Amino acid sequence: MVSLEKMITTQEISRTRKDEGALLDYANRKRQEDRFNDVKIKVENETFPANRMVLSCYSDYFDRMFQTNMMERYQDEVVMNEITKTSMKLIIEFIYTGNIKINKGNVRDLLSAADMLCINDVKIFCVEFLEMSITMDTCFTILSLADLYRSEKLQTRVKSFLEENINDVVLSQDFMSLDLNKMKSVFTDNQVPELTLYKAYLEWTKHDVENRRCHFSDLFAKVYLPAISTEYLENEMSNESLVSDDFGCLRKHHHEILRRSRLAKQGGSSRVLSIGGRNTMQNVFEVVNVSGSPTRNYPDLPQKKHAPCCTVLHGNVVYAIGGATEVKDDSITSQVCRLDMKMDNLEWEVVASMKVRRRVMGAAVFNETIFVVGGLNENGDQLSSGEYYTSTFNRWADISPMKQPRSGNAAVSCRGYIYSLGGYGSNKYLSSVERFHPGNDVWDDVPSMKVPRNWLAAVALNDTHIYAIGGLAGEEDATLQKSVERYDVTTNKWSDVGEMNVERSSHAACVLQGKIYVVGGVDKNKYAVKSIECYDPTTNKWTIVGETYERLLFHALVAI
User: Fold this and answer.
1) Is 173 part of any domain?
2) N or C: which end of the chain has fewer CB within 10 A?
3) In a domain, 226, yes or no
4) Which pLDDT tens digit goes with each residue over 376-416?
């Protein structure tokens, strides 16, 4: 008779029994019958019979306890008063059944017990419950738990909630009850409007004014007053006793009022100058004049400025910064020169050069300081670096680098921040926007533009909105844009506004008497544009208001 082994040709099969929970079900029944239990866990005078092997299987804490030379390894009863009896009961039931019920009454103790006993599943379930429980009243308590039990996921979720609701959160009772260090830490990772920051410090101090008054001066020093409206400074802050009763606070407040008074006396602009450019490298001339007075003659730049230099107005002084002297990378300059518009005999003066040679970068002025960010260096590399200039010391100094290297970007000053918009970096056109806080030397992200834009123009209007105008746009194929979008610094959102009449890139823009003027650039046919357009925010419309004599591109504009 042939053996069965020789008759069967099938080599091998593998199957799995479908009773994965049968062993635990059996173990749980026997636990309840007090059979096979070899240890008792005692908590608050209550004992919980269990099996060492089952406990060790689901808890690294018990596994170490019962396999090392800890004295509990040899005891029939283990006392654990670090855990509540309710939590221990729930955890043992979870170990044997896989089920647990978490609610607001037990989540804190369960999280503590799960962390101690190294039962990661229960810890994850507690974190999920806490994530669903974040409110104005609970956010700081939950953040404390996230910090205590090292839950990065929960920390991230709470900080996201704080960022989204910071204006309301800082006035909540939970915030008022924080100690000094915890209160200050709320603003470490959250960029907060300066007025909100001031109100938060003020109300927190008043919540326990006798004990907290001593901290207010130091807190007030962290508030960047130039970002707060003149109306609030004069009508609200001036009447606050915590400010007026402290010499340091009062001096800072008074200095800001005087600074704004000096700026107001300088009067409004009435002319727009074009400086440098591909075809007009050393030329300076008026392209807009709404003063009714005769056009002035302006001296040429001391050095050619192409592709382009940046211009800013600092007081009554025009600064022309960087750029290139020829259409090639090795001609990039760090030179800076200035033209004092108060002088009868206008003459450019060369001042301290930038630390880095740059072209196609962004520049803006805030609080009597000039900031320059990004651009290309002499090797053609996109730069993330930035620097600032103070006329008092005639010196440039570094600021923290941007998160994204970019060239062809625009920079504007608005509401206490320097914004860097768009440009080209990481081998693509950029829609991203970063802002720099001069008070703490930190860049943070703000919502991206709706369209990636390179060679755009950008301006800030009324210290409330930022306009991104035209440029080369698109994710893959570059499309010349006449579209314009506006960022509301209060709502933190971008929206579309009226389009220009002509698509443009390599153009320039500035604000004159509450309106935006755009001059020059290249159109979709690669022709230099001679038309001048004006945007009226009250009508949301662009109007062609004139032409330039020269074809301007890669130039700079400044309103004087």
Assistant:
1) no
2) N
3) yes
4) 998 989 999 999 999 989 999 999 999 999 999 999 999 88
